[in-house]
Amino acid sequence: xxxIQQENVTKPWLITLLSVLSKxxxxxxxxxxxxxxxxxxxxKAIIKYIKSKPVTWEKNPRLGTAMQFLRQCQDxxxxxxxxxxxxxxxxxxxxxxxxxxxxxxCYEKAGSKDKEIKIYENAWHFLFVDQWKQQVFDDIDAWISxxxxxxxxxxxxxxxxxxxxxxxQTQKN
Length: 173
Description:
By secondary structure, the protein is mainly alpha-helical. Helix content is 50%, strand content 7%.
C-alpha cells in the first residue's frame, strides 16, 4: 500500500498544519479520519468481530503515527526502482481504502526483474480474512514454491567464500 483512496485523503493545507503539530504533540489523536474498517471487508460479520476486539484503536490516528506513515509512503514511492528482490503485489480491485491503481504503478515502477501482481477482481482491502482468503493463500504458496530453489541457490552462493565463487565462475566458463 502506497496511497490511500483520494476520498480518504486529508486536504494538503491540513497535512502541513498537522505535520508541524506532530513535532510538538505526536501522541495527539487529531488526524481527521473515517472509520475505514467498514470499507475493508465485504463480510460484515468479520467487521463486527474486528470492532469488538479491545485492542482495536477507536480514536483518530495519532499525529506522529500518521506523519510517519505518510513519510514511509513517500519514501517507498521515490525508491521503487531500487527494489531488486522478488516481489509479489496483491490487491483487491474493489478496495475502498487503498488504490489498486497505485499497486499497478508500483509493479510497473519496481526495479525487480522477478515481480508479479495479482489483482483480485471482487476483493476488498482485507485479502487475508475475506471470502477470497484461500485463493490469496494459494497464490502466495505457489509464488514462494516457484522461487524456493532460486532462493536456496542464492543464499547458498552468498555463503561461499570468494575463492569458492571464483572456482564456480571458472567451471561455468
